[in-house]
TrEMBL record:
It is found in: Cell membrane. The lineage of its organism: Bacteria, Bacillati, Actinomycetota, Actinomycetes, Micrococcales. It is a multi-pass membrane protein. The keyword Transport applies. It comes from Cellulomonas aerilata. Keywords: Cell membrane, Membrane, Symport, Transmembrane, Transmembrane helix, Transport. May be a proton symporter involved in the uptake of osmolytes such as proline and glycine betaine. This is Putative proline/betaine transporter. Residues 24-460 form the Major facilitator superfamily (MFS) profile domain. The chain crosses the membrane at residues 63-86, 98-119, 125-152, 164-187, 199-220, 253-270, 314-333, 345-367, 373-395, 407-430, 436-455.
Length: 469
């Protein structure tokens, strides 16, 4: 009997199984890699082929704007997804919610690759409508993905390493970009323009299924994070996380949204607008000749000039720039641990403000200026995006952390991301082909983020397990 008793006591005293460092890194990284892979796959297709495949009755500029409008649908859906997945993330736990968000996101992306286009007889109106539905479903899944991955990383982090662990999910952005665009580049080089437009564009969307399978395998092996397990053990689980976060943490919700604003505007200008501007013909004559060669209508009055690079050349330039994004995402974690999140972000956001003023001069500086813009912009992107994996979750108590960080992150996505490509194209046209107003738009967003940072407090030393609302 005593032997049994001793065994039972030992079992009771044994620590609960935890997540290994490697499993935390991979599980938090894989989901955001898929998230940004999905984004870049759609963003690239939205520039290169979707205007011609899904908006066939519009002139090129209007078709491009329509394609970006559908692109923005996912960002409208993301706050809805943040509420849904945030509720379950704060009610039942991080693990199950992350599995569900990954499935919703992955299935929607795969189905985009299966859609008929508007060129298919009888699908002129239904094809664009289905594309909108799939983008909305992508947005729902994405609404719960980032915050769950950030919590998985930071709530498993050792003491004084939350900002470092928080960079793991952030690395998904450069990884997703490189994988998606290398795949598009390989397809461009190996397929004829007709084959790429006919079926080759589908491959990146269909291939996402492989990444989802790997992500599910890793996430199903996780155990609950220590911070949320303590909330369960102490009975502090919020019955209605959405109501609780608005009552107890409305100020962090607002500050977190605007702290993220400049990061989002920079992110989508550097990826979507630069590709659009870089690959648009530099003269009306070149644009007319390209349209004639492709057998497409051309509206000279709607034309605005760009840089005239081929899409393959500019994708290579973008991929080279994104390498700096990845490097400085890793660099940002130790910086935020040493100097604090607030001080680090104040410095970097000031740099984004100056970068916005240099946007047009750099773009007008030929190949060297354009590469300088890409390298500098993506360096700033890594330095501002990396700390967000720790900053936004640290603003909120544990029992509403999933909901709070998700809402701030995804409302910022509407203000800074859904609008950015659309606004940038409108400003580009308003300035007769100059990106000067686009740069001022970026600087303006940096000012709003600087104000939010000045109104916020340092979160480096906040408790992560003894903090509930």
């Amino acid at each position: 009997m005593s032997s049994v008793s001793a065994t039972s006591s030992a079992a009771a005293a044994a620590p609960a199984p935890g997540n290994s460092r490697g499993r935390v890194i991979l599980a938090s990284l894989i989901g955001t890699s898929i998230e940004f892979y999905d984004f870049y796959a759609y963003a690239t297709a939205a520039v290169l082929v979707f205007p011609r495949l899904f908006f066939v009755n519009e002139d090129p500029t209007t078709a491009l704007l329509a394609s970006f409008a559908v692109f923005g649908v996912a960002f409208v859906a993301r706050p809805i997804g943040s509420i849904i997945f945030g509720h379950f993330g704060d009610r039942i736990g991080r693990k199950g919610t992350l599995v569900a968000s990954l499935l919703v996101m992955g299935i929607a992306t795969f189905l985009i690759g299966c859609l008929p286009t508007a060129l298919t007889p009888g699908w002129e109106f239904l094809a664009p409508a289905l594309l909108v539905v799939m983008r909305f479903c992508q947005g729902l899944g994405l609404g719960g993905e980032w915050s769950g991955a950030a919590l998985l990383a930071t709530e498993n982090a050792p003491a004084n390493k939350r900002a470092i662990y928080g960079t793991f999910p952030q690395l998904g952005a450069p990884i997703g970009f490189i994988v998606a665009n290398v795949l598009f580049l390989v397809l461009n080089l190996s397929l004829s323009a007709e084959d790429f437009e006919s079926w080759g564009w589908r491959i990146p969307f269909l291939a996402s299924a492989l990444l989802v399978i790997v992500g599910l395998y890793v996430r199903l092996k996780l155990v609950e994070t220590p911070a949320f397990q303590k909330v369960i053990d102490t009975g502090e689980v919020a019955k209605l996380p959405l109501a609780r976060v608005f009552v107890s943490s409305w100020r962090p919700l607002i500050l977190g949204t605007f702290i993220m604003l400049a990061t989002y505007v920079l992110f989508y200008l550097m990826t979507t607008f630069t590709l659009t501007y870089g690959t648009t013909a530099s003269s009306v004559e070149d644009a007319a000749a390209a349209a004639e060669a492709a057998g497409k209508p051309f509206n000279a009055e709607a034309f605005v000039p760009g840089l005239g690079y081929t899409r393959d050349d500019f994708l290579v330039m973008l991929i080279a720039g994104v390498v700096f994004f990845g490097i400085f995402t890793l660099v940002s974690g130790p910086l935020a641990e040493r100097f604090g999140r607030r001080r680090t972000l104040l410095t970097v956001t000031s740099g984004i403000f100056v970068f916005g003023l240099l946007f047009s001069p750099l773009f007008g500086g030929g190949f060297v200026g354009t590469m300088g813009l890409l390298v500098l912009g993506f360096t700033l992107m890594g330095l501002t995006f990396g700390p967000m994996g720790a900053v936004l979750p640290e603003l909120f108590p544990t029992n509403v952390r999933y909901t709070g960080s998700a809402i701030s992150y995804n409302v910022a996505s509407i203000l800074g991301a859904a609008l950015a490509p659309f606004v940038a194209v409108a400003l580009w046209r308003a300035a007769d082909g100059s990106p000067v107003l686009v740069g001022l738009y970026l600087s303006g967003s940096a000012v709003l983020t600087l104000i939010a940072l000045l109104l916020s407090k340092e979160t480096k030393d906040v408790s992560y397990t003894d903090n509930v609302s």
